[in-house]
Amino acid sequence: MxxxxxxxxxxNRSTTAVGFLSVAVxxxxxxxxxxxxxHQKKTLLGQxxxxxxxxxxxxxxxxxxxxxxxxxxxxxxxxxxxxLLRVGPGKFEFGKDKYSHWFDGMALLHQFRMEKGTVTYxxxxxxxxxxxxxxxxxxxxxxxxxxxxxxDPCKNIFERFLSKFERPAMTDNTNVxxxxxxxxxxxxxETNFMNKVDIETLEKIExxxxxxxxxxxxxxxxxxxxxxxxxxxxxxxxxxxxxxxxIIRVPPxxxxxxxxxxxxxxxxxxxxxxxxxxxxxxxxGMTKNYIIFIEQxxxxxxxxxxxxxxxxxxxxxxxxxxxxxxxxxYVVDKHTGQLLPGMYYSKPFITFHQINAFEDEGCIIIDMxxxxxxxxxxxxxxxxxxxSGEGLDQVYNSVALSFxxxxxxxLHISENDPAGENLSPLSYSSASAVKxxxxxxxxxxxxxxxxxxxxxxxxxxxxxxxxxxxGKKYNFFYGCGFRHLVGDSLMKVxxxxxxxxxxxxxxxxxxxPIFVPVPGAKEEDDGVILSVVITPKxxxxxxxxxxxxxxxxxxxxxxxxxxxxxxxHGTFVPI
Length: 575
Hints:
By secondary structure, the protein is mainly β.
């Protein structure tokens, strides 16, 4: 999700910053298996009517500090022993001040604990400095991505005017994802701050500042991991030479028990094509040997961001979709830090989440959820999401849907390769990589779906069997279907035959699906899918859903009588 963009640059004009743009018999849910059907009528993308209001899913809730027991229906596998941890915005106002954008809400941490077929639940607001400062002031003191904090009303007019020129405080409202470094868990967004947390108590332990360790101001909320625990991430830097995208490596183990991200290092810096308008990115790809960075035409106008407070605008005002630029792929050897010479381009698109990437026959294959229009960020203003009736339909019908696509990047490019030749040797993919007369490689994607996915509203929040298949050739991924502004179904996609399995229950909205393998699993999809499913219906409970990942049938659910907002990301931690 996108968040505070350039605050550190505002405070230290020649230092660093990073973009922060950063979902049984007893209920009979709808379960469909879709195969290719050539006679299906293609629906007009995004055109839906009479959408139900989801405003209760995007309003402030109370935290559930005391552990409560969930009511299990069906069964929860007894081997499933661990925590499902999730995070997202859960408080949208302080006093009379209200946040404008969904991404701005204060981080609410959720914990479902599973043990011997039972489930408990608790939640807590992250006690970030931002949360505590706003609470003490009973107003929004620190600006967020889409909300500009106003001057203290107790100041006189002259003092309020001068405050426009003060250095803005950097938010540490880390509400996007749980990330892991050296065995510890941190709440992350895309600013320079992370908050280390105790996953058992959900208490904050320590605030960590990336810029105290390396010359970047922040990192994405979607790092990648090698099997030994080495973590890779990306963050931006800004200085006299322009903007750079930096690849970060964090070692897998601590030398001292008190360490956080000590030993982190930048292994490669990539200059942006435009010094003052670098691209926003939310994630990146990684194979066994390479990092893949995608420079897309969602631009951060640094001058607008630097002057946002003076101009009375939120940071989001500096983000713009500029499709006159093509999308470019950069490939970096993650062992040496060397940027490969291949210049890979495609038509303009935007991606927030990678699905997977792997190497085969001298190529990198990278799969992503892609949109052809990057203007969606403005749509997620809370006033839009909380609409009803025709107004809500109009908002949804203006959204660009997201679809899974595959790109192929040949690694071994020769000057002797003739222009106009497709350099991809892969017989199983229609994606092409055609050399141009100027030496650039023009990449055209393969759709990893049929028309049925269009009828499901596209797909986002992709997840795979990460522990066994990240960076490897794979068959399946899981995600949320979007026939509403938030996910309204869960899907399993077979990327080989492009078939779908869909779980849906009318009036319920599932979160990002998390795959958990069965102990000793032999097959890629031998496990379960966990998703937190919520509803605006006052007479229904929210619940943790457990699906058999193979046939996508419900095994059980654990209901809790607690109001929950729709969130972003999470993880499963075995115990």
